[in-house]
Specification:
The protein has helices spanning 15-23, 28-31, 124-149, and strands at residues 4-11, 35-43, 49-58, 61-74, 80-89, 92-103, 108-118. With 151 residues, it is of the alpha+beta class.
Length: 151
């Protein structure tokens, strides 16, 4: 069973702005350094991406994988949470996570939970460190993108 890692960051942008960046998968290669290609495979009835295919190059880990998204817990103002689960991959056996967006004094507090597991054996401590690096990098890149896009 995969372990879970969590981290949070405050972003000086409204939750709706942050959510729009999270939902704009096709722009990920512009700002999410390890994501090389993205293809939206299916959308739900509301126009949200349902299944998304990624090509990842994170140095030691290179993979093509598909995630299924759940947007049902997002409010009109962008607060709430969006989650995803791994549908298929080559090296990964789990890549499940959640972005939780809350109003904060500076704009939005984003909390990122992530579970990763690989087909290749890896010591738990190293896997948690890798998860932490993935989360911290993603949050910093998301913050940079959101704060550069606000009015």
């Amino acid at each position: 069973m995969p372990d879970s890692t969590r981290s949070s960051i405050d972003i000086a942008a409204a939750p709706g702005v942050v959510l729009d960046i999270i939902a704009d998968f096709e722009a990920y290669p512009e700002w999410a350094g390890q994501v090389k290609e993205v293809d939206i495979l299916t959308e739900d009835g509301d126009g949200w991406a349902d299944q998304v295919e990624y090509v990842l190059d994170a140095g030691a880990i290179k993979d093509t994988y598909v995630l299924k998204y759940d947007w049902d817990h997002i409010e009109a103002d962008g607060t709430g949470w969006v989650s995803w689960t791994l549908v298929r991959a080559g090296v990964l056996t789990a890549l499940n996570g959640t972005y939780t967006l809350q109003d904060s004094a500076v704009g939005t507090k984003v909390t990122y939970d992530l579970e990763v597991d690989l087909r290749i054996p890896m010591i738990g401590m190293l896997k948690r460190k890798a998860e932490k690096v993935i989360i911290d990098t993603a949050l910093k890149e998301l913050k940079r993108r959101a704060e550069s896009m606000r009015d």
